[in-house]
Amino acid sequence: MGVGLNSRAIIAAIRDRRPLDADQYSWFSNGLADGGVSDAQAGAFAMAVLLNGLQGDGRVDLTLAMCDSGERLTWDLPGPVIDKHSTGGIGDCVSLVLAPALAACGAYVPMISGRGLGHTGGTLDKLEAIPGVKTQLETPQLRLVLERAGCAIISATGQIAPADKRLYAIRDVTGTVESLDLITASILSKKLAAGLEGLVLDVKTGSGAFMKTPEQARALAQALVETANAAGCRTSAVISDMNQPLAPSLGNALEMAEAMRVLTGQTGGNLARLTTALGGVALAGAGLAKDVAAGAAYINDALTSGKAANHMGQMIAAMGGPVGFVEQWQRFLPEATVIREVTAAHSGFVSAIDGEAMGLAVIKLGGGRQVEADQIDPSVGLSDVLGLGTWVEKGDPLLRIHAARVDHAHQVEATLRRAITLSPDRPELPPLIYEQMG
User: 59, 68, 85, 179: which one is catalytic?
Assistant: First the structure.
């Protein structure tokens, strides 16, 4: 007997590891979009997928069904339409730097991004730390911003992958974030709906990533690349390290500040290095550079010349933010009222960092959501986080807590001290980039 077009039967089939066909995935996705599927059913579906996986062509079928639950954008622009997506990490604000850098190199970047998920921060939450910025744009507004600035970082609207928007929020509060099938469908449904010609994926591995081992990251990268290319979007993936924060800050306004320091030439480090590497892959794939090395050089020039910052300023102004943000970004970003150092209990090298514990501490401070309705405080988080291999003396600061109240800082201090391991021997540092696929 075949599976019927109803939620209970579809959930039971996944529970029992029986395959569904494209029509059933389409029916369920449309139910997510129009409310025909309840929150309880959506949560049960997500848990069944997490525990049992999707059978047969389920990953591709679910991705396409979620993409087709709303509108697919089409473009008529004088350059390739490309994008980048990260699977999520801590201190990872690459999107905020790379989107305007790609725009400065002749690409158009309609970046449909997400909010905080699990222990990781969301690009939209970081961008909305800027006063006035609105990331919820309807399609005509998106087109206008893209034509003006060359890039637009927005949320999935009611018209773009509405099934994913609903399921994404439910995954965050039901313990089903880590499913490879759901991550693949979530990422690619939005990207395919954006009408992309090319995509580069940053798949994270390490203590601060969802995929803790390189093997898990490789499996996800392969799933994403195969699914996206099967759907007609030229896609490559880079597997990068997340055993320490990519930038030395966690939290929305603090990460926005790190992005601005890179865009205005005030700092470099791993954030700038990874941005340049991913941009090189994206430009080469789009035909805007002869190879990855040439593309990376173009991105580096866009950052050091101020061209990328100019595109960022145009995007922020077009999305309702301050006209002079790039020139005076420090005055616009909110600051926490309490800043407290976490100091080293003894001397040693920073040999390990529990990134997930750090991310959860930021959420406890109010910088992320524990339930869907939570309001985020954009000013809180962590800054000046020491990197792996750094030598510290007893009493030296390991990081700084930015909190709304003294008791909030005190509640996370012990957790954060435990999150950083100090050892007498210098650790072997992991590579920033492990490999490229596709």
Answer: 85
Residue 190 falls in the annotated catalytic set:
yes
Residue 68: active-site member: no
Assign 2 a pLDDT band (cuts: 50, 70, 90): low
**Pairing label, strands 391-392, 348-353:** antiparallel
The residue from 126, 165, 171, 311 that is catalytic is 171
**H/E segment holding residue 205:** strand 198-205
pLDDT tens digits, residue range 185-231?
998 998 999 999 999 999 999 988 878 899 999 999 999 999 999 88
pTM: 0.89
Element (H, E) at 359: helix 355-362
Residue 236 a catalytic site member: no
184 a catalytic residue = no
**Catalytic position from the list 29, 186, 207, 236:** 186
Domains of the chain in start order, with CATH, are 7-56 (1.20.970.10), 82-330 (3.40.1030.10), 335-423 (3.90.1170.30)
How far, in Å, CA of 235 to CA of 177, rounded?
23
Q: Determine whether 171 is an active site residue.
A: yes
Residue 327 has what DSSP assignment?
A: T
**Which of 115, 126, 191, 400 is flagged as catalytic?**
191
Is-contact 281 238, C-beta < 8 A? Answer: yes
H-state helical runs in 264-318: 269-285, 292-305, 307-318
83 annotated active-site: yes
Whether 346 sits among the annotated catalytic residues: the reply is: no
The question of whether 126 is a catalytic residue gets the answer no
pLDDT in tens, 35-57: 999 999 999 999 999 999 999 89
